[in-house]
UniProtKB/TrEMBL annotation, chains A, B:
<dbReference type="GO" id="GO:0008270">
    <property type="term" value="F:zinc ion binding"/>
</dbReference>
<dbReference type="Pfam" id="PF13602">
    <property type="entry name" value="ADH_zinc_N_2"/>
</dbReference>
<feature type="compositionally biased region" description="Low complexity">
    <location>
        <begin position="33"/>
        <end position="52"/>
    </location>
</feature>
<comment type="similarity">
    <text>Belongs to the zinc-containing alcohol dehydrogenase family. Quinone oxidoreductase subfamily.</text>
</comment>
<feature type="compositionally biased region" description="Basic and acidic residues">
    <location>
        <begin position="16"/>
        <end position="32"/>
    </location>
</feature>
<protein>
    <submittedName>
        <fullName>Vesicle amine transport 1</fullName>
    </submittedName>
</protein>
<dbReference type="Pfam" id="PF08240">
    <property type="entry name" value="ADH_N"/>
</dbReference>
<dbReference type="GO" id="GO:0016491">
    <property type="term" value="F:oxidoreductase activity"/>
</dbReference>
<feature type="region of interest" description="Disordered">
    <location>
        <begin position="1"/>
        <end position="55"/>
    </location>
</feature>
<dbReference type="GO" id="GO:0010637">
    <property type="term" value="P:negative regulation of mitochondrial fusion"/>
</dbReference>
<keyword id="KW-0560">Oxidoreductase</keyword>
<dbReference type="GO" id="GO:0005741">
    <property type="term" value="C:mitochondrial outer membrane"/>
</dbReference>
<feature type="region of interest" description="Disordered">
    <location>
        <begin position="386"/>
        <end position="461"/>
    </location>
</feature>
<dbReference type="InterPro" id="IPR002364">
    <property type="entry name" value="Quin_OxRdtase/zeta-crystal_CS"/>
</dbReference>
<dbReference type="InterPro" id="IPR011032">
    <property type="entry name" value="GroES-like_sf"/>
</dbReference>
<dbReference type="InterPro" id="IPR013154">
    <property type="entry name" value="ADH-like_N"/>
</dbReference>
<dbReference type="InterPro" id="IPR020843">
    <property type="entry name" value="ER"/>
</dbReference>
Amino acid sequence: MSGEDAPAQQQNAVDQKQETKPAEEPKAEPPKTESAPAAAAEADATPAAATEKVPEEETFTYRALVLTGHGGYDKVKLQVKKGKPTLKAGEVLVRVKACGLNFADLMARQGLYDRMPSPPVTLGMECSGLVEAVGDKVMVLNRFGLWQEVAVVPASHTFLIPEGMSFEEAAALPVNYITAYMMLFDFGNLRPNQSVLVHAAAGGVGIAATQLCKTVKDVTVFGTASASKHETISQGGVEHPIDYRTKDYVEEVRKISPKGMDIILDPLGGSDTHKAYNLLKPMGKLITYGTANMLAGQKKNLLAVAKNWYHQFSIHTLSLIQGNKSVCGFHLGYLDGEMELISQAMNTILDLYKEGKVKPHIDSTWHMEQVGDAMRKMQERNNIGKVILTTEPMPEEEKKEEPKKEDKKDDKKKDDKKKDDKKKDDGKKEEKKDDKKKEEPKKEEPKKEEEKKEEAKKEEK
Amino acid sequence: MSGEDAPAQQQNAVDQKQETKPAEEPKAEPPKTESAPAAAAEADATPAAATEKVPEEETFTYRALVLTGHGGYDKVKLQVKKGKPTLKAGEVLVRVKACGLNFADLMARQGLYDRMPSPPVTLGMECSGLVEAVGDKVMVLNRFGLWQEVAVVPASHTFLIPEGMSFEEAAALPVNYITAYMMLFDFGNLRPNQSVLVHAAAGGVGIAATQLCKTVKDVTVFGTASASKHETISQGGVEHPIDYRTKDYVEEVRKISPKGMDIILDPLGGSDTHKAYNLLKPMGKLITYGTANMLAGQKKNLLAVAKNWYHQFSIHTLSLIQGNKSVCGFHLGYLDGEMELISQAMNTILDLYKEGKVKPHIDSTWHMEQVGDAMRKMQERNNIGKVILTTEPMPEEEKKEEPKKEDKKDDKKKDDKKKDDKKKDDGKKEEKKDDKKKEEPKKEEPKKEEEKKEEAKKEEK
Ligand SMILES: NC(=O)c1ccc[n+]([C@@H]2O[C@H](COP(=O)([O-])OP(=O)(O)OC[C@H]3O[C@@H](n4cnc5c(N)ncnc54)[C@H](OP(=O)(O)O)[C@@H]3O)[C@@H](O)[C@H]2O)c1
Ligand SMILES: NC(=O)c1ccc[n+]([C@@H]2O[C@H](COP(=O)([O-])OP(=O)(O)OC[C@H]3O[C@@H](n4cnc5c(N)ncnc54)[C@H](OP(=O)(O)O)[C@@H]3O)[C@@H](O)[C@H]2O)c1
């Protein structure tokens, strides 16, 4: 973690620096062009400091992605906030460079995520950037509020970015890797020769989990994902990719491993949790950590929610005892009081990163203006790895090229209209349309590095 | 494990030896005196080999402790079986020296243990002895059938006794230590600085668990037990002994550790499982492995059973997820298909034994004739550590001294009478009466060794 040792004194230093050194990051300066109507001061964002009467502090503005209500992609608006936030003891101000998009942000948008305050609220549970006071490059984990150019967070929620890691990678790492790590190594107690079933194996958590499995000798990974992603996940270490859309994954697993699995990571919930339980070997561990099955369509789908509740898994201890089974629940959002545990996990993950054993896989990077498209990419199941938002201003020419696809029609001001054709957004039909999306080569260096490593690997073989 | 490499060929060797070498263990020869009416050939014991017509095989007899029906202590009868058992491929014949008494044997007697066939059946899930064919000293783990002078078991269920371990210790080790080990290190994933709540901390599993906890740095053990046992368990490593009979253990734990426990071992079931669940820290693990609460009185107590069922714990995944909790069920009796896992655990345990880090604590050793008293000692909650049965013949003078206490009246032939005063046997009232019971100094060596080690420890301090 960065600068948490002497929060009180350091805070003063930060405050002073803020006054004397307003524009440390020229690139991160708010462009002031793009802007939906600016929100009034929000509950979660510290309002402009009323006591400090420095004019500059008052004129300070920054962009934020605000959830304005529950519903479709258009509920997330890019707004301009005014007034430089003040810091409390133990907090730091981070100039945000990149943000991670998580499945929970999609759930939150639909009102299905209980760790998010009611709208209006700034979204975002992870980001990377620079601590303004000291210039440290950090990644940040928070319950919400990180999708903005300037974020104030407890210093204990920041982690130093190691040498050689890009801001995109750093924004992609915390949630997925801490989640995968704690599930596999704390609850799962993963050991050599074991077998692990990873659902959504091409997703953010899925790829992190696969990489972490591969740090243990002779672990076999079974992974479910849409067929188009199988090549990537196979290369990433999944021995048995399973297309759950066209096949019964339980049968597929049993064919290969009749006794079942040692560990199953279940982000789906509902009836899939039952299936997972039945697929466990003796001494097997089921770790349930999500209810992706609740998400169907752009807006809350009551049928999907009801189905998930109806199939909600409940276990009797007698069944656990007779089966020699373990059922664990994991939720990073409820671990915010346990920063020590999280730091321990993070330190190990960063060590593995430095050893080249894990590396976030970036699916695509989007401007803040494109958050709807970014969300759509994940929600329509087209991402492989992490979807990233960047705070870099969007070049004028890209704005003319503009959003992408049919997203345009939803992009502006249709907030509360019930125009939400669920069939279209069901994810199963609209796939592939996104495939042609152009990703922007913003940072050359990290990509070059990646290529170098891949070449090196090929040479080894 | 002993002699499992080439079971088929070895079996032949064993068979031949049996024919030529009938009485390898003079001491273990059946004394032919003590005998309740001999049982007819039982389902679980291999009947006299009809095909081999060697007279000696036919005249071969051995004593066995047979559960003749469900009920009080008197349902377990010492019977003489006739005919030397034959061996199937992969099996070995063990001349039994000592047997471990387990809580499950008490439950089985009452018809509350589902891994035991219906009576008549020979009890006993662990013992130590000599493999007749090769002379190896082994300990044995089996679902049932080991409380007899001669036991036929799969070679894979035997483990070599290490140098310096007595037969009593060897009979005390398998069930308690494998159970404690797999719970703490497989499901529990115990790590330095964690806290563990051990119920029945002065019992067989409880002492094993405490010792195993102490092999990990800075683990704090909270243990419940009757007050009279606190001194012993404190010396054994329990930092916080709690008298659950006079105090609310949940409150006591919270006073010392307000956030709760990292691991809770729950052998009680019913409402105690709920309490355990609520006492878990985030990322905590509850391992439930018994329903001792079902046992009240000599015979099945329907009220206790009903209460346990009524309070039967069932968990919703949503609660697990929001709490970041794990609930595991463990049952060694259902792991009989997993001898590889069990062997791995056993090997580690034996290494720890050799390093002097674990050592079974023997409460008392009883002759086969005294099985009722032995059971009573455990059931009335008077044991500290393991209750052992020995197959050594009971000296004549001891027979005159005879059983002990009010047991006499139940000792013979009251099989099916409903005379079972539950109040008296409730365990809470009758305590201490057993305290004066004289233990027989059958083996001098192990005791001397123990004393030596204790002296050494004192000198260290
Ligand atoms: N409890 C926690 O602390 C925690 C933390 C992080 C994530 N999670 C959970 O982990 C899961 C993955 O999260 P992530 O952020 O890494 O997302 P992700 O896996 O990168 O993206 C979602 C992917 O999941 C698959 N998927 C399955 N059902 C889906 C549905 N109903 N809608 C959309 N996609 C679906 C899709 O791929 P395929 O169809 O090709 O498989 C999709 O590409 C989510 O359930 C999330 O809630 C939980
Ligand atoms: N699942 C498995 O594989 C497995 C394997 C072995 C044992 N177990 C379970 O672990 C527990 C301990 O077994 P153990 O063989 O080691 O026995 P034990 O603990 O040596 O003996 C029983 C002790 O438990 C305490 N106790 C609590 N409730 C009791 C009750 N209703 N009746 C009698 N005693 C009670 C008593 O001590 P205090 O009252 O002083 O605490 C008593 O001395 C049992 O519940 C057993 O079923 C499970």
